[in-house]
Structures are given as C-alpha cells and as structure tokens.
Amino acid sequence: MSMPSPVSLSLTALPIASVSPLQGSQTTHWQQQSVSHGQLYFHVDLVHAASKKAVLTAIGQSMHFPSHYGANFDALADCLSELDIGNASGIVLVLENLPALADFDLAAKEILLEILQDAAHEWAQKKIAFRVFYS
Length: 135
Prior knowledge:
This is Barstar family protein. The protein is 37% helix and 18% strand. It has 135 residues and is an alpha/beta fold. Helix 4 (106-125) links the parallel strand 3 (90-96) and strand 4.
C-alpha cells in the first residue's frame, strides 16, 4: 500500500501541532491549503539571511510582529504565543532555506525548531492549528 505524496496531503490530514521538513516545492500547496482552510499563511525565504539576527528579523517581519520585537529566541517565543489571528482557524508558517552560519549553526536551528514546536503545542491547547514547514 503506497502512502499519498506530501503534496497531495490536506492540512486536515496532519496533526494540528506540527513542525515538519518541507519536501520538494510544497510552498504553493501549503499556501493554497491554508487559504482553503481559513488559516493564516506566513512564508519566510531565508536564502539571504546572513546571521541569526537576520533569520529572526525575517521571521518577525513576515509574521508582522510588533515593533518592539527583539529578534532573539526569547522574543520569538513571546511573539508566537501572542499572535493575533483574528477569526483564522490556524496558522501555517513556511520557512525556506534555513541557513547554516557561524552564529546560526545546528544548535541554533534546533532551538528555533523547539520554540516553534512549543508554540504549536501552546496553540493546540487553544484548539488552534499551528503548522510549520521548513527547509
């Protein structure tokens, strides 16, 4: 029995709290899925991010964090938990091209993914979907 391709998956087939690798060119698929399911969609392409601060700044800008956002891991965690989603039924965040940099190494990437997973679980407790896809 073959599994459906990730691109054929619907958001409803995924856990409401998930942080998953982005496979292939799924960006458009997840954008369409978020729109059709009444969820907010945020896309961050980090191909030009040259530092940890640039990665965190790009996430904050794309997600419309307040001007006082400090572009550090603590501020990211705070702002993710305080997002105003209006009437949306969930959040889809696509992070493309996570860099490998001196100050954004594997440990920093793991911290980022852990913060995102924590935020996903926090939103799930409120019965709000929070799904992240990254490459």
